[in-house]
Each structure stands twice: as C-alpha cells, then as structure tokens.
Amino acid sequence: RQRASSMLALRRLVLWAVLARLATATPTCVETGSPRTTYTCSRFTSHADFDRFLSRDFSPDRYSRVDFVLKDSNLDYLPPAALEGTRASSVKFSNVRVHGETPASAGGHPFSGVTSWLTKVTFSDGSTVPHSWSLLAPLNKLEDLVLEQMHYVNLSSGFNLLPKSLKRVRVSNSTISGVDVDWLHQLVNLETVRVENSNLNTFLRSMLPLPAAKLTSLTLRNANLTSLPADLTVDIPHLTELNLQGNDIKHFDQESFAPLLTHHSNVTAHLDGNPLDCDCHARFLNQIPDGWTTPPCQSPERLKGRHVKNIGISQLICESASGGR
Questions:
Q1: Could you tell me what percentage of the chain is helix, strand and coil, using 3-state DSSP and rounding each to the nearest 5?
Q2: Burial 280-298 (b: 16+ CB within 10 A, else e)
Q3: DSSP H or E run through 9
Q4: What is the total count of domains within the chain?
Q5: Peptide bond into 35 cis (omega under 30)
Q6: pLDDT tens track for 167-178
Q7: Which of 175, 242, 285, 316 could form a disulfide with 308 if both were Cys (CB 3.0 to 4.6 A apart)?
Q8: Separation of alpha carbons 215 and 207, rounded Å
Q9: 308 lies in a domain?
C-alpha cells in the first residue's frame, strides 16, 4: 500500500511538472494598467499566434493609448497587419527572434492598421532588427526609435530609410558591430541622438544631417570614443546639450566646440569622465561657460587631480612649446 501511495505521488508530481511546462510554453497576452494600457504578449512561436491570441477590440472610446509589448518569442515572420485593432501607440520587441521577412500580400506591412498613431518602436534584449529599415517607412507618425541591450547591431546607412518624421534615436547598453559614415545623415528632423554605454568607437559629423537644423541634444556617453571630429558642432544651430561623459578622450580640440563657444550662450556640455591631458590644447577649457563640466587632469603628474579652471594658462603647456623654456 505504501509503494502504491508513493507511485501515485510520483505520477502527480510528473503530471504537475508537465502541466507547468505546458503553461509556461503557451502563448499569452495580458492587459495591464489604466488609463494608459500596456498589452503584453509572450512566447509566440509562429506568425499565426497573432490571430490566435491577440485581442483586436481596443475601441477608441476606451483606449486612447496602448503600449504593445511582444517578448520571449521566436517567429517565422511578422504577419501583415500584425497589430491591427490594438491601437498601439508604442511597440516594443523584447527578446524576439524573427527568421524571415513578411510575405508580400494585399494585407500590407506588419504595421498596417496602427500607422495613424504609432509613434515609438523599441528593439531590446537581442531582438531581431528588420532586414531593412524600410519596414518602418510607412510609419509616418514615428518619432522615437530605441535600441537597448542589443547584440552586434549595425548602425548602417539603412537607417536613412526610416520615416522623416523621426525625432529621437537612442542606442543604449548595446554591442555595436559597425557604424556607417552617413548613419543618420538624411533624417533631417532629428531633435535628439543618444548613444550610451555602447561601443560606438568613432563618431563623424557626417553621421548627422547637415545642417542638423532641429537637433537640440547630442549624447555620446560611455561610447568608447578616443577623439572627436573638428567639425563636431558645425551647423547644429539649436544644440543646447552635448554629453561626452565617460569616454577615453585625452585631448579636446577647441575647434570641435568653437560654434558652441561663440554662438550658443545657453548650451550645456558635459566632458567629465575622460582622462584629460592638461597640456596646451586644454587652455580653452579654462574659459568655458559655468554650465560646462570637465574632468580633473589625469596628466601630467604635476597637475593630476586639479581642474583646468583652477590652473593658470601658463601651466598648460605642451612639450614642444616648453622645450625652449
């Protein structure tokens, strides 16, 4: 009798484990929050799951804004009109693999049905980015594109296929496999560009529109930069915030900041967190506006730990300049 009881308990345990596994593997969609609604779907394994599990009855009188999240999914492709009826104003793909392109059909592209109000798209946690950024071209209200915690993302010239309505681009906590010289060059309405905690390694002025007439904020923080282009701030007439914190820049060239120093009295620049060499090239930092932040000197040893603003210009010398002294 005791053995039979043990066998029954074991069977129940096995059954519970099987049911638990099936439950965690079953695609689900859950609605949370009010009045701003987040609609989260997870564990999709096929394009057909959008029709099987997605609710499409988000009426405008009840839902003014819906944040749609798809996570932990592995798809053959995104179906046409995948989000139709959801009233999604933002879409986030988190840990989502997509293995093929959306087939051409009368149903249109994956975002058919939400183009009138979709303003933000996020790819995160190693999700597959579109084979071509033209996939997002029909989103004529798109303002924000976010890439966070991505693996080997390529910042290619294909970004210029994104809709011209785009205002903000953010890349954070990601591994960058490469960046083209004209990365965002044609996106003339950009207002904010942020690359943070990612190995950008190199930045050129040609990566931004020329002129960047609407750009107000440029952040290249913890981006593995060792130098800046001389024309960094040329033809960015409305730039008010420049963040270069946490890079490996030893020498800041005055020419890189000349337009800000001569024409932008209200600009804020953050240069701290860099291993500054306080030689003759750092003299201009002695006269920067109060709103700017700079790192303490890392070298030479006699000035280490001191801030440029507290050092006389005569002490900021280059070896070639001091050779005859």
A1: 20, 20, 55
A2: bbbbbbbebeeebebbebe
A3: helix 2-25
A4: 1
A5: yes
A6: 999 999 999 999
A7: 285
A8: 13
A9: no
Amino acid (one-letter) located at 318: C
Q: Say what the pLDDT of residue 322 is.
A: 46
d(CA 224, CA 242): 16
Which residue is associated with the tokens 């409305």?
238
What three-state secondary structure class fits 287?
helix
Q: Tell me, what CATH number does 120's domain have?
A: 3.80.10.10
- DSSP code at position 104: P
User: Domain for residue 107, yes or no?
Assistant: yes
Tell whether 53 is covered by a domain.
yes
The string of DSSP letters for 83-115 reads TTTS-EEEEEEEEEEE-SPPPP-TT-STTTTTT
Angstrom distance (rounded) from CA 285 to CA 294 = 8
Domain that residue 116 falls in = 28-246
Over residues 207-239, the pLDDT tens digits come to 999 999 999 999 999 999 999 999 999 999 999
Q: 122 Cβ partners below 8 Å, 6+ apart?
A: 90, 91, 92, 93, 94, 144, 145, 146, 147, 148
DSSP state of 47: T
pLDDT digits (tens, 9 = 90+) for 242-284: 999 999 999 999 999 999 988 767 899 999 999 999 999 999 9
H or E stretch covering 2: helix 2-25
The answer to the question of residue 323 being in a domain is no
Beta strands of 247-316 (E only): which ranges? 268-270
Q: What DSSP element (H or E) covers 243? A: strand 241-243
Alpha carbons 256 and 108: distance in angstroms, whole number: 46
Closest alpha carbon to 260 in 216, 210, 207, 199: 216
Query: Rounded to whole angstroms, how far apart are CA atoms 238 and 214?
Result: 6
How far apart, in whole angstroms, are the C-alpha atoms of residue 83 and residue 271?
43
What is the Cα–Cα distance from 263 to 259, expressed in whole angstroms?
Answer: 6
Residues in the chain: 325
- Residue whose token pair is 């087939």: 103
Q: Which of 157, 146, 199, 214 is nearest to 180 (CA)?
A: 157
